[in-house]
Amino acid sequence: MASTTVEADLAAAHRSLEGLALGDAFGERWFRLFREPRQAYNEVRARRMPPEPVWNWTDDTAMARALQRVLDEHGEVEQDRLALFFALAFDADRARGYGHGMHMLLPELLISPGDWRTLAPQLFEGGSLGNGAAMRVAPLGARFRRDVDHAAEQAALQAEVTHAHPAGIAGAVAVAVAAALAVRGAFTLDEVVARTPAGPVRDGLARAAEVPFDTEAWRAADLLGNGQRIRADDTVPFALWTAARHPDDLEAALWATAEGFGDVDTTCAIAGGVVGAAVGVDGVPAEWLRRREPLN
Ligand SMILES: [Mg+2]
C-alpha cells in the first residue's frame, strides 16, 4: 500500500480528532456549570463566543485519544489493549465528566482489562446503551475512509469494550460510517441509515433524514432528542442531522448543535468529529483554537 495512502488515512483521523476535541470543549461551555440556562440560550442564539480563556475537553476526547493510540499501535481495534487504554485515560484524570457506568467499569478494567467481556454486558442489566461509544469514534471512521464496511465493523468492536447493548453499538457504527462517508464527500443521512443496524438508533436516524434542513436546530432537537437521556438513540440522530446540515462549515455545525443543548459536549463532539473529518478545523475562528485545551 502506498505510504501516501496511509498518510492520507492518518491525516483524516487527525482532522476528525481535532474537530471532535473542539466540539467537545466548545459544547461543554454551555452547561450550567458555566452559565445559567437562560444566559446560555441567549448567547448561543446570538452566536457569542464563550468568554472562558481555556476550553477544556472532556471524557469524549480522552476516550477518542485512547482509541487512536490503539489504532496507531495495531492498525485495528485490539479490544483488551483498548480496555487498558480507556482505564488508563480515566485513571489519569477522573474529573473529565465520565458517566456513571464508566465510573463503575473503568476502575475494574485498570486491574484486569480482559474483564470487559463479562463486566460490560452486566452494566445496567444488558449493557450500556449510552452515547459513550459514539462520542469517541468519528476519528476511527475517518481513518478507515477507504472501506466503509470495515469502519462499521471496527466501530462495533471498539463499542463492545464499554457499551455492550445493541443500541450503544449501533450509535457507534452510525457515527463512524458518517465520518468515513464525510471524508469521501458522500455523507448523507440516508446512506448512514442504510448502514446502521436495525433498532432505535436507526429509527431515529430515519426520522432525522425526514427533517428538512431549513428547520431551526432547536426544533430538530425537540423532534430527535438532544442527548439529555444520555442514550445513543437520543443523541446520534440530532448530532448527525446538524453535521449533514453543515457538511462544509464546522463553526456553523457546532453553533447549530449547541442550540439543542442537552448533552451538548457529546452532540458537539460527534458533529465536530464528522464535519472536521472532511474540512478540518482551519475554518473556525483562530481564537477558538487558541482557547481549546491542546491535545498534547
Ligand atoms: Mg463529555
From TrEMBL:
Gene3D superfamilies documented for this protein: ADP-ribosylation/Crystallin J1
InterPro entries: ADP-ribosylglycohydrolase (IPR050792), Ribosyl_crysJ1 (IPR005502), Ribosyl_crysJ1_sf (IPR036705)
Source species, domain of life: Bacteria
Pfam families assigned to the protein according to its UniProt record, in alphabetical order: ADP_ribosyl_GH
Signal peptide extent: none
SUPFAM superfamilies: ADP-ribosylglycohydrolase (SSF101478)
Protein name as annotated: ADP-ribosylglycohydrolase family protein
Species the sequence originates in: Streptomyces brevispora
